[in-house]
Amino acid sequence: MRALITGMNGFAGSHLAEFLLTQADVHVFGTGLGSTSHLSHLGSRVTFIPGDLTDAHVVENLLTQTQPTHIYHLAGQAFAPISWQDPWATLETNIRAQVNVLHTAARLQSSARILVIGSMDEYGRVDARDLPITETTPLRPDSPYGVSKIAQDFLGLQYFLSHRLHVVRVRPSNHIGPRQSEQFVTSNFAKQIAEIEAGLRAPVLYVGNLSAQRDFTDVRDMVRAYYLALEHGVPGEVYNIGSARAVSIQTIVEMLLQHSRAAIRVEADPARFRPSDTPILYCDPTKFRTQTGWTPTIPLETSLRDILDYWREQVARQRG
Fold first, then answer.
1. I need a surface site. Which of 218, 228, 273, 284 has the fewest CB within 10 A?
2. Distance (Å, rounded) from C-alpha 267 to C-alpha 273?
3. pLDDT value of residue 275
4. Are 46 and 40 in contact (CB under 8 A)?
5. Mean per-residue pLDDT over the chain, rounded
6. Neighbours of 313 (CB within 10 A)
């Protein structure tokens, strides 16, 4: 197995690299832009090739050089709120990179198994009648990011239908865990708490909409699902991946505060509210579980404790 992970230096990409290294006879290659600090603990066990996937020549050189049997396409702009600030940047980055990977694979007549990562945000504006979300639930994206993920998703389908590429598509729920950017809700709260504990900020936790409910899955469970998707998923099919339950952001805050070493007050920050925020979103992953046997194993409380400990370590390091 020669695995190529795009965005390997990112949050999910680094965890996927870790997981693949536990499998027998796997060579792990990766690409991406920016810092490689998330990969420093892996050392020479992985081969990282910096590259911008929006450049078709870079993609061609990458696939020719690595000759992958498996491609996990995780690279892209993954933070929905940024897409409201600059919609085209998100659309261009996510769609162009996806086109380049698929078109180059088709042109090179690659037999690689390719994982296309969509998102629960493709479903967008859902109501109680839509829940739990299945793969046939109508797509009503309410952010430019959601639109970009639909485009990636359907490009995967198109290249399966028109070029017979071995493409498996997944729509993962919110995944959380250590090393996630502070832009994301659980990581942001944990970092604030760690800084409060270290005396670096006032004992106030700033939050946005606490009533929103989301489907949270630990990233370590999620990357195992990605591996199983290419091992057992049916080419051309799409699968929801998630915990099958919704948890409110209020509950996330309460669980994190239970592990805090300081007394902290919670305060709403208007700047943290989104222009559009679906009240509740959770999926039915039955199709994926039936096909692959996957089920999440890491409890939410464990994920949150690990995230908080990660940020405590980061804050301690920054203080020297």
1. 273
2. 13
3. 73
4. no
5. 96
6. 12
